[in-house]
Design brief:
With 149 residues, the protein is α+β, with helices and mostly antiparallel strands. It has helices at 25-34, 60-71, 103-111, 119-125, and strands at residues 3-5, 42-47, 50-59, 78-87, 93-96, 141-144. Strand 3 (50-59), helix 2 (60-71) and strand 4 (78-87) form a beta-alpha-beta unit. Helix 3 crosses helix 4. The radius of gyration is 15 Å and the shape is globular.
């Protein structure tokens, strides 16, 4: 993986985070646990507004969800993912939500006209960070997996 950029003044506000700095490593690991993301063996380091995550994970999907759960928090401008994936697969595309976006609109943009009903694929790809399809916000970064044929 590599370095991923986020808008640091949006996202989940967690203890110790602010517009200018990320929360502590311990608080960020709690955020992963809140989303039922297995953080055992994962190292999270914070340098101001940059988060460095390393360790071994089972899948590309798990790695992507970890980096999005960390990056979509207040005060994080980038996540340097040094995660090692045991069974790598094709990486999902990432999409930054804009004002006025809905998952339907994003599905139409990413998958093509007439594919809005595929918003459920995007919702499922971002669960448990998303708990309702209508609860997205500008600046949030989402996983957009390829459609299965």
């Amino acid at each position: 993986m590599s370095v991923f950029s986020f808008l640091k003044n949006v996202g989940a506000k967690i203890l110790g985070s602010s517009d200018t700095k990320a929360a502590s490593s311990d608080e960020l690991k709690k955020e992963l646990a809140k989303h039922s993301l297995d953080a055992e063996g994962i190292q999270v380091d914070v340098e101001g507004d940059k988060v460095i995550v390393s360790g071994a994970v089972d899948s590309t999907e798990q790695a992507e969800k970890i980096l999005l759960a960390l990056g979509n928090t207040m005060g994080v401008s980038e996540v340097d993912s040094q995660l090692e994936v045991a069974a790598p697969t094709t990486e999902a595309r990432l999409y930054t939500v804009k004002s006025g976006d809905t998952l339907w609109k994003i599905a139409e943009e990413m998958y093509g006209k007439g594919k809005g009903a595929q918003y459920t694929v995007i919702f499922e790809a971002n669960t448990p960070m998303l708990n309702h399809p209508d609860k997205i916000y500008p600046g949030q970064v989402l996983r957009i997996p390829e459609l299965e044929v």
